[in-house]
Every structure is written in C-alpha cells, then in structure tokens.
Amino acid sequence: MIKDNTIISMSESVRYLGKEERDADLKGFMKKFIKLSPEDAVKLRKEIDGLKLMKVKQEHIAKIMDFLPEKAEDLSKIFNDINLDEDETKKILAAVKEYI
C-alpha cells in the first residue's frame, strides 16, 4: 500500500532498496551515477528547503541533488520551466557547493 507520494533523488532512493540480489545489482548500477551519500542527500534537501524559495519545487530539489550543478548555466537546465533570479541562483549554488 502506498502511504506517501514523495519525489526523492537517486541518493535517497538507495536507502529503500533491500538486501536481495536484484536490489544489490540495482544498488551497484545506481552507485555509478550517485554523487551524494544518502546522509548528505538528506542534509542537502533540508538546506535547500530551508532557503524557502517559492519557485523551487520538490522535483527541482531531487534533480539538483542528482546533478549537483556547479554553475548557473547548469542550474538553469534543471529549471527550464522557471527563471530564477540571481539571488536565488547564488543561494542554491552555495548550498550545493558544500557537497561537491
């Protein structure tokens, strides 16, 4: 039964995989792409949520955590439907910079 529908990053999703062989194979595959530990992913999500930016949705936060953009151009690719102002961009990049 589905209790909650929450968008999470790949780093956060690893915590929900079991210990069966197929889950181990999936974990191994995902680790090729994951840049954050699950613990750091939780911290980064809290930091970005704590910025209280109205334009930033949970979908955007998950993608930020997956890609860890270093420049404003990289961040703008995640927010292709929204234009962030310079202050919002700087705040998000500053939060991400700690985890790169």
Can you offer a commentary on this structure?
The protein is mainly alpha-helical and 100 residues long. It has one domain. The chain is 57% helix and 0% strand. It is built from six helices and no strands. The model has no long low-confidence stretch (mean pLDDT 92).
Structural class: mainly alpha
Number of domains: 1
The span between the termini is 36 Å
Order of helices and strands: HHHHHH
**Low-pLDDT runs:** none
What do the pLDDT scores average to? 92
> What does the oligomeric state look like here?
single chain
Binned strand content: under 5%
Radius of gyration: 14 Å
Determine the fraction of residues in helical runs and give it as a percent range: 55-70%
Number of helical stretches of at least 4 residues: 6
Shape: globular
Q: What's the number of extended β-strand segments?
A: 0
Describe the structure concisely for a colleague.
With 100 residues, the chain is mostly helical. It is 57% helix and 0% strand. The relative contact order is 0.16.
